[in-house]
Amino acid sequence: MEKAGAKVMNLLTKGSLNHLTHQLHKSEAQHFGEIAEVLDKAAKLGLKSNIYLEDWSNGMRHSRDYVLKFVEFLKINPSSESYCPIPWEYSYLRKPLNLYLS
Q: Which of 1, 9, 20, 37 is 20 to 30 A from 43 (CA-CA)?
């Protein structure tokens, strides 16, 4: 990425506990730790990071605590300028997340 002159890295992560445990077979701590390492490397290279939580709408429905822990992790991670887009069709979830983040 550095050689190609990239300025922004898009990182697809697991936004539901179901995807995390059944696809990656990892714990929250493992996933968050690996993400922190990648964000740290990107920051050292001067890259901004967009974080996308795959399947996060199902995460909010079935593993809300996991998604909120993830958002909290992103808030406190000093190496990231993270962005988690909320698709228009899930705009009903904006209010709970905004309340949590404020």
A: 20
CA gyration radius, the chain? 14
- For residue 81, the 8-state DSSP code is -
The answer to whether 56 touches 98, Cβ cutoff 8 Å, is no
Residue 61's SS3 state is helix
Q: Which two tokens stand for residue 88?
A: 């228009």
Q: Give the burial class of 17: count Cβ atoms within 10 A of its Cβ; 0-12 exposed, 13-18 middle, 19 or more buried.
A: buried
Cβ atoms of 8 and 50 within 8 Å: the answer is yes
Predicted TM-score (pTM) of this structure: 0.78
